[in-house]
Design goal:
The chain is mainly α. It contains 14 helices and no strands. Helix 4 packs parallel to helix 13, helix 6 packs antiparallel against helix 7 and helix 11 packs antiparallel against helix 13.
Length: 299
């Protein structure tokens, strides 16, 4: 008997426990439209922040000692620092730098993860064992320590930070993609293709990569917040970007010496801005995950 009949019938034998409410069917179409709207809106805001930061690079380093250490006002919404530099311009420029570094490093890291996952799943037991050993080795070392060592060995700067982030953020995504491709290899058409002599490279390009494309895209987007936060972290510690660059890590590091003097805006607004950018990237990743997940899986 369906739910409608149970609701319309009076309580009888076997129905002494009343049904208080009928479960509502999930509106998959509406949730997908909302996810798409959130995803597009967050992406547009991120693009706007990146463009605004690129346009503010000159204003971010312009000094005016007649307007130093000013509290937030209409003329300077984020206040000014000890050199009279506008903190709004510096925060936007720093966020733009972080976004660019995060995109480059996350893209390189995701490509490395995809290549290693395909090699592990299609290269045989020895290659799979080697890739699994590399994953365990990379995950056994704290990210921040390995990132500092790589960045410092490469002379710091933007290049060192990008390479360091790219070489430390691939293990988790590699493990996910490897599991998906290994599951794909058990499918009958893949077994038949291998029996017919289809090369492993062709199997990877024609079947493995298209199959794991949704997981790859979601993992790529979700790598951005980690890349941005780690870039800001090692820059704050002095092992990342150059102090002359208007980066969020540099801004927060310099602000530490002025917080006791009451200049709270030097750290609060840049820190909150970085947090909002990370949350926007997380929103884009969550939206992509919902859009790329089949409706029957979400039910």
């Amino acid at each position: 008997m369906d739910v409608a009949d149970r609701l319309s019938r009076p309580a009888a034998v076997g129905y002494d426990v009343p049904l208080l409410h009928a479960p509502r069917a999930r509106a998959h179409g509406g949730s997908r439209r909302a996810a798409l709207a959130w995803c597009v809106g967050a992406a547009l805001v991120l693009v706007g922040i990146g463009l605004a930061g690129a346009a503010c690079q000159g204003a971010a380093v312009a000094t005016d000692f007649t307007a130093k250490n000013l509290a937030p006002s209409l003329a300077h919404p984020f206040g000014t620092d000890w050199m009279g530099r506008d903190m709004l311009a510096r925060a936007l420029a720093g966020l733009s730098t972080s976004i660019v570094i995060g995109i480059v490093s996350a893209a390189v890291s995701a490509v490395v993860a995809l290549a290693l996952a395909c090699a592990a799943a299609l290269g045989g037991r020895r290659v799979d064992a080697l890739v699994s050993w590399l994953i365990d080795l990379a995950m056994g070392i704290p990210h921040i320590v390995l990132l500092i060592l790589i960045s410092y060995a490469l002379g710091r700067g933007a290049l060192g930070v990008c390479i360091g982030v790219a070489l430390t953020h691939w293990p988790s995504l590699t493990r996910v993609l490897r599991a998906e491709i290994l599951q794909l290899m058990t499918q009958p058409f893949m077994v038949a293709s291998r029996a017919l002599g289809v090369s492993r490279c062709r199997l990877a390009l024609t079947h493995a990569v298209p199959t794991v494309a949704p997981q790859f895209l979601v993992g790529l987007v979700l790598l951005f917040p980690h890349a941005i936060l780690h870039e800001a972290s090692i820059t704050f510690l002095g092992f990342g970007l150059s102090p002359e660059m208007p980066a969020i890590g540099v801004i927060l590091s310099e602000a530490m010496g002025y917080l006791t003097a009451g200049a709270w805006w030097l750290a609060v607004f840049p820190g909150v801005s970085l947090l909002l950018v990370v949350l926007l990237f997380d929103r884009v990743g969550a939206g992509l995950r919902r859009l790329l997940t089949p409706e029957e899986v979400q039910a």
